[in-house]
Design a protein that fits this description.
The protein has 13 helices and five strands. It has a single domain, classed as SGNH hydrolase (Rossmann fold). It starts with 11 loop residues before the first helix and ends in a 6-residue tail after the last helix. The protein is globular. Helix 4 packs across helix 13 (211-229). The chain has 235 residues and is α/β, with parallel strands linked by helices.
Length: 235
Amino acid sequence: MPAAPRICDPHADLFNFRHPLPNLTESLKKRRKIKIVAIGSSSTAGEADIVPYPSRLEMLLRGRFHHRLIDVLNRGLSGQEAPSELSRFEPDVFAETPALVIWQVGTNAVFRKDEFNFDDVMVAVAAGLRWLKDLPIDVVMMDLQYTPAVVDGEKLKLSEELVRRIAQAAEHSEVNVFRRFDLMRHWVDQDGLSMAELVREGDPLKLHMSDWATNCATTALAQSIMARLEAVSLT
């Protein structure tokens, strides 16, 4: 008999958002077509046969908010990091006039540490957050995944440093962080999941998330978004 599938625990009590989402809330109140832009690297774009989180998030939000047309636009490009993503903001973010941007950063800066400078990454993050702050757009930063490629050996300290710096930049700009790294680490350290369960089967890099991990992380992200919206009336 096959083993029962793992139960997904998004740990909303530990990882929910701190800041409101006023622009997304207002868009939902007006019942108009709503755009969310997801920009990032392969975690956003998708890898192999794993359905990426933007498609899953779109389904969850459409299921919760009936009679609204919610599109989650996937603007991920594999291998990119914040400086290259920032160069795409004009066509891929601003031109879409989204109510919410989810910006996934940090993984490639650690995974390919010889190619990226953390200071350059954070300068790009700070610049992007400044640009977005002047627009009617809510922002969620998404930090690193907790997989062997970014936590084995010396890379663990590098990941922890970058997670901390992303959180500081987001707090300075008063935007939310989806703390993916800490959530996945909690699954391992507290919930008893193995690292193998978090990584796509057959991934030689041990970098990309499994279907289960992608699905559960998306559930956590959707619940964090919805918790900030359900605090107000959307009727």
